[in-house]
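agent> call fold_tool(seq_1)
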Amino acid sequence: MLLLKSFILGFSVSAPVGPIGLLCIQRVLSRGVTAGFLTGLGAATANIIYSSIAAFGFTVASAFMLEQQFYLKIIGMIFLVYLGIKTFHKKPPQDSARVKGESSFQLFASTLLLMITNPVTIVNFAAMFAGLGFSGESSSLQMAVSLILGVFMGAVTWWLLLSIGVNLFKKSITPHLPIVNKTAGILLILLAFLSLA
């Protein structure tokens, strides 16, 4: 039952379309399902890191990251602006067939880096876990592992469904890809400044 609850939590935390969702959609349209899924997998990996810190109470790590959150947000903002500019100038697939794209690892790592610069996620997970009845002091290791595993599985399921779903409409969207890229690029830059504010 706890695994199912944490699965739903991981799914619902990932579902709102923010910067990562935009990147995932744009990458599915330009590179395919695998590129979109790897983007989401980077986000899900960041979630598993932060949910582990929240569940196992790594006080020193969480305190340090929360103390440094301003600097981490600046790094995240700069990286998001960079991705926004890169997306804005990205050429449609037919124009960029000869242009070397990001490797699978780069697709994964760029999202992981973007997500890891938001340490407030630790506090969010700690609060959500408490809402599910988890207490770091009194709860078992098995309970903590179930929570973390459920969150990860829920997040991965969302990113897989989003990637497949966007791919289903790829043919009708691809002719408009230059507009999609420019819109996504502008939104990523705006979200970068909004996240800092």
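agent> call fold_tool(seq_2)
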Amino acid sequence: MKKIIEEFFSHFFSNPVLPLLVIVCSISAMALTSDKDATAENEQIEYARQKQLMQLAEATASSSSAAATTQASSSAETTEKLTVASETQTVTTTTTTAAAETTTAAETTEPVTEAPAENPPAPPVEQPQVSDYSVFMGAESPNGAFYQDKLVIIGDSIASGFCAYGYIPGNHNVAKESLALWNMNNYTFDVGGGAMSAVDAAAYTGSPLIFISIGMNDILGMSPDDYGARMCALAQQVASVLPDSTIVVGSITPVSDGNYYTDNATIRSFNSALENAINSAGSPQILFFSTYSVLCDPNTLALSYDAAGGDGLHLNGSSYGWVLNALFNYLDTAGAYERIQATGR
């Protein structure tokens, strides 16, 4: 084998053409192999890119197809739901009609009497009645204008509201702020004849109907019995100068709950003493009227919210109309209309 190889190389190199041919073939082979590998690599990369794009396109197409499928399924499902809903509505309508027929049938049958409860509810507790005068609220006296034209008011700041809100004229107003039984002699009134005391001013008017409302400013300085006695004495004094007039003594008005000045229990004790004093006097000319009952809330017995003037002590404009409405109806029941008519004034 070694001899054969030596003879081959001896003949190969003895001829100068063969080595050159071998070199040229080797170079050509190398060049061809390099281009083929580069082409193959480029083809693989481009294919990979195309493959990725194709995969993406396939995924997009799959998504679109899935969405279309879902939409189709949803449409089908909606159609099915609508169909079911329609059927349900039909069933519901039928059921409603049946229920209506059942209700009609039930209405035509005799009602079933329920067995009495083991513990029946307690009857409602009656609210305390302060006075019977509250029943006159809500009805207008046919003689209202007749009374209002003749009415003269004697009293304090609360009483002066009858004039301030236009219910009586100024020459019928014998009332001032802060007036009380204990300080009446410090006040004068001019109702057309110059400055006079309250009693003289009332006499000057010559009115057949006098309404006296004093007391809120006396609560802090008097006892209920003292107040009742002194108010009765004032009414009798007015009656003495107007012997054929009707004298109405009004009770102290209520205040709002929690008022700074006084409380309603105290006011009611003063009003009770006043009513007892007037009734004890036994004069057909002098009448007691519970203004308190007209203005109090029947549940709390405090000044009604609708009557309050803002400070929980004084009254608003509407409340005076309510008082007069109740007063005039009360006068009708007390025979005052005929008595006033008889005076000719």
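agent> summarizing second result for user.
The CA atoms of residues 17 and 23 lie 10 Å apart. The beta strands are 151-155, 173-175, 189-190, 195-196, 209-213, 246-250, 286-289.
agent> awaiting next instruction.
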